[in-house]
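hey so i finally got around to running the thing on that chain from the lab meeting. sorry it took forever, my laptop kept dying and i had to restart like 3 times. anyway pasting the input first so we r on the same page abt which one it is
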Amino acid sequence: MAIVKCQTVVNILEELAPRKLAESWDNVGLLVGDGRQEVKKVMVCLDVPEWVVDEAVSKNVDMIIAHHPIIFSGMKKINNDNVLGRKLLKLIKNNISVYCTHTNYDIVKNGLNDAFADLLGFEEHQIIEETTQEKLLKLAVYVPQGYELKVMEAMSNAGAGFIGAYSHCSFRTNGVGTFKPTEGAKPFIGEANKLEEVQEYKLETIVPEKLLSKVLRDMQKVHPYEEVAYDIYELANKGKRQGVGRLVVLEHDKTLMELAEDIKQKLGISTIRLAGDRYKSVRKLALLNGAGNKFVNSAYFSGAQVLITGDMQYHEILDAVEMGISVIDAGHYATEKLMSKKIAEHLIERFNALKYDVEVFESETNIDPVLNI
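ok and heres what got predicted. didnt touch it at all, straight out
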């Protein structure tokens, strides 16, 4: 089995949710630790309170993957005089790295915003507030005849070749490639110092920028040439839209009270905060996992009748109701706890595919600190 470094885990996570997608105020990435450290055990959690750090120490964890950043603002000292200092010292002393994927994971396609909507049973939803559009590239690679399908399959399996709902999209042209191996070369075809002409295909396909490294790596693994010739072009075509919040339109009207009961059942919670006319019929919903205080205006301009979120404060709830938007506040933890399960599943799937011997599990102590009685 290959030795897995912390940076390797970071790369896998950033293929899923690139750091550049995060909001400007956020702090994501490897916040504690050494990218060169060997990783055998990974624990996933929503938050990193001190008891979760203690759990990681007791279970000999090498790396924590968290949603909420353990460090949000600047620090002038690290010591035992405060909770954050104690946690950081304990993590460093026990060689435990901490990686945080926050608003970048909320925003990205198939990230937490989408997972939250899916969990609530809303299969069809769209972005409310666009933050960026995925950059697309064209990759052209030259392959000897007989290997074109193998190379194309590897690139497609790595995420290249998607156009809308179609996968494995490519174009190939036949031609003649020339090269002369120099002394020291180990050519797949040809001899040293002899000019060769080879029937080749030029394979062209579209690659999302965030997947380029993975596509190139997987392509080169199956390509027969010692030195692979390829070109990369930046395209004016726009890729997938990324953004905050999801808008849902129900097939049939529901009362606010019926909707709230449905959400309680889907999230497995016994209580929920509700603002607005509970008997009002609604159909257009705005969803945002986590704190929704700053999302009221976006929900209003999307035409939503209800904002389903967590952690709303009194004045923002009042503002929303005055605008004609009802609020369902299911709590911060309840709307985001799904993150641990989703990230753990993704890492297990990728580690298995790559044949990496890394144990991945969810924290058992990172539970909702708020008790509703």
